[in-house]
Amino acid sequence: MARPFAVLLVAVMLALAYVPAGSVRAEDDPPWQAAPAPAPEPGPAADPPPVPAPARPSGSSIPDDAKCVVSGEPWKASSTRVDAILRIDGQSRRGLFLNLAYMLIYRQMAEEAHHQVGIESVRVLDFPTFGTDHEQMIDINEDWSNVAFLKTDKSLPGSKEPYFAAFSSTDDLQKAMESIGGKPKTYEEVMKMLLKALDGGDSAASIDPDPLDGMRKHPKFGD
User: Looking at the whole model, is its pTM more than 0.85?
Assistant: First the structure.
């Protein structure tokens, strides 16, 4: 009788040892770590980052810690600073620049990033007033007759090359020529020189006339 009982005991033990895979309990499993989550599907390629856009609308005031939109340097520290109203993709925005060259560099950067940019108005610091208690910006008028520039090789405070100092008075310009040297230039001459340099050409035919046309089309300046 003992032999059949032993056979039955072995059969029961074998049956208990076999547990279908679907019935395994979590507490019976050995320690384990969850598989890492699958990586997200790659989305569409991101657009190229836009050029730094002027952060303030055209009618806003200028804070004391304002920065040049191109270089990020202090705007009010520049003796050749420019305050321009730009038309960017149909919206008027204010752009602050260390000098006229940076204004045109910004315009070129924006166009290369497929933005539409026009220059509606330009104000430049009257150089003799820089650092005084009565600094004045010159609102360049429609025919550019109220401003003249001095192109100089001398480093000008807070600015970058090329150096063009702006003057509302020819007397002040003459005095500056005696002290820092240089040659007088009209606004149109300055713009053409800068555009030619940016374009890399040696002839007037390579100059992009759009900024000059924009100035002629928008005779109102300032905020």
Answer: no
